[in-house]
Specification:
Layout lengths: L2 E4 L4 E4 L4 E2 L24 E4 L2 E4 L4 E2 L4 E5 L4
Parallel strand pairs: 1-7
Antiparallel strand pairs: 1-2, 3-6, 4-5, 4-7
Bound molecules: FE2/S2 (inorganic) cluster.
Length: about 70
């Protein structure tokens, strides 16, 4: 299973492949209000393996990920 390491939260979680990031519930992905995961509001931006992406649109595939969220934790 791929591992997802959260830099700010200092947490590493193993998840199944094809898990949407937002299914990882113990991470705060967005500050309210947001578009509810439609990819429109840009409030869920985070850095995934060095690239800025919208967390609501991303999944874990087979590789490990390192994620820096932009929410206050
Ligand atoms: S929650 Fe709005 S773009 Fe991801």
């Amino acid at each position: 299973m791929p591992k997802v390491h959260f830099i700010k939260e200092e947490k590493t979680i193993e998840v199944n492949s094809l898990t949407p990031l937002w299914d990882i519930k113990d991470i705060k992905w967005v500050e309210e209000p947001n578009c509810g995961g439609q990819g429109r509001c840009q409030k869920c931006k985070c850095i995934i393996n060095g690239e800025e992406k919208f967390s609501c649109l991303e999944k874990v595939y087979k590789d490990d990920l390192e994620i820096e969220t932009k929410t206050a934790s």
